[in-house]
Amino acid sequence: MKKTKLKYLFIIAAFIMLLYIGQTNSVLTEGFVKLSDSANDEESIEKSQHIIVGYYPAWKSYEGYTPDKIDASKLTHINYAFANIGPDYRISMGYPDKDPANFEMFKELKKINPDLKILISVGGWNWSGRFSDMAVTEENRAKFAESCVEFITKYGLDGVDLDWEYPVGGGLETNSKSPNDKQNLTLLLQNIREKLDAQGLKDNKKYLLTIAAGASNYYISNTEADKIHNYLDFINLMTYDINGPWDTYSDFNSPLYNDNDTISIDSCVKAWLNAGLPADKLIMGIPFYGYKYDVSGTSEDGLRQKHIGGSALSYETIVTDYLNNPEYTRKFHEKSLVPWLYNGKTFVSYDDSQSVALKAEYIREKNLGGAMVWELSQDSKGTLLNSLYEGLTSVSSNDYRGHWAEAVIQKWLDMKYIAGYPDGTFRPEAFITRAEFVKMANNLFRFSETSEIAFEDVKEGSWYYKEIQKAYKAGYIKGISSAEFAPDDYITREQSAAIISRLLDLEGNNTGADIFYDSSQISGWAKGSAGAAAANSLIIGYEDNTFRPLNNIKRAEAVALLDRILE
Predict the structure, then answer these.
(1) What is the tens place of the pLDDT at every residue in 280-339?
(2) How far is CA 327 from CA 125, 345, 347, 477, in A?
(3) Quick check: is 467 catalytic?
(4) What SS3 class is residue 66?
(5) Which residues pair with 77 in a beta bridge?
(6) Could you tell me the domains of the chain?
(7) Which partner for 553 in 24, 27, 124, 271 could form a disulfide, CB atoms 3.0-4.6 Å apart?
(8) Catalytic residue among 30, 165, 375, 557
(9) Residue 84 pairs with which residues in a beta bridge?
(10) Which among 407, 481, 483, 476 is positioned nearest to 444, based on CA atoms?
(11) pLDDT in tens, 124-146
(12) In this structure, are strands 346-349 and 51-57 parallel, antiparallel, or unpaired?
């Protein structure tokens, strides 16, 4: 430790300087910020630090809305809906005449949007029939989990989303159901998580596992909510269809708050938080559709009146046929914070730019992980998506308030050691890619000499070309293979530990990593580095004493790390 003390002091001073001028991002998580090539280069490309998931229904490709039509620049994840479960309890294509071509389009979409993650969503309303039978035995669960891994690796996808509608009860009458679904869902997710992580170690990649979950207490009661989140990257909460034409009275599809003792987004979110779900793993659902009711009563401008029938409408249809129709008057409910349309006999519940912006504000205030939308084709012009994106990116200067690192962030801000971004945000959850991390390290150590590189994915003319040349010359980076560096991949905890150890000339310490319960999951090439970083208190484990080698490090964590070194 003594031989590195001077290096530590230099690193601290340099890191402080970089943070102050706003050129750094933290060491990693699932946020979205790109560094510019240098302090004098054009401004960074900034994206949302929140997750924005868009469901893409495969059947829309028959109608001409193919994946290449999606504006992926405003999304972090796309869930491809749906795959089915075959009679052999393996994942199967839902639309075999369209799926392969669509998957190829997604590859092209990712070339333009390299941070974008594509997941295959399994089940949905129509194809949840075999979940219960599949999840009932260890053999079936393993078979399904293995087939998921095979599927996503074959088609170049980033993970799996399960849309089981629903465990224990609900959904189609023909679905298999069992009281044991509650426990079996947990076991299924555990099995899939293990298979994905094992494949991730082979591929040096983090594969994602998510679910679409019902919003109500009924769904929560039929799951082990306090356990399942341990295996999930996040949960897409279906906070829509709270009311619909199946009810006796007309009401709002997705009210943010309730005013008449009915459920709302807010009550559903609170129920999930009370059930033990971490806020940052909760992704709030927003509908890009609404419902039309033919109401029999005329009071309350059609709200909560008996109706004689109703149907779903896409947002685009609502705009074209109703919002632009002079016969209809737009109303806005000041308590539920959603609009509706009424013409004396027809009530239309929907979301618009105003209500979506308010929901984005709610996500920020509650420190939720982000938003999910069903579904992208219903807003093909991007009106609602733009509102959501702007709402989640235009964050106030107090965006670190309520964060676990608020105290240390405030301390460093008060000392003028760090400053936020030009828009006044600090972005404690922002992340960094492998290339961005290399640039930061080069700036810290003032590396300037370059050498030739053979990485085929590092093209001359890219902003990171010279940075990776510098890092290679300095000897602290290796590619994920002799021909590939993966500059746009998010750097993992074990990768960052290896780089830190090389930069500081720390001696490898395999036994040092044994303090972590999951030390066996650390890659062999990284274990000595992780152990050395842990032994020098540069990297610490999570509350459950795990290292989680494939997870990322956040901007807030970087400040906390520096503060520990100063102690």
Answers:
(1) 999 999 999 999 999 987 788 999 999 999 999 999 999 999 998 999 999 999 999 999
(2) 35, 11, 12, 66
(3) no
(4) coil
(5) 53, 117
(6) 2-47+405-566 (no CATH), 51-286+350-393 (3.20.20.80)
(7) 27
(8) 165
(9) 92
(10) 476
(11) 999 999 999 999 999 999 999 99
(12) unpaired
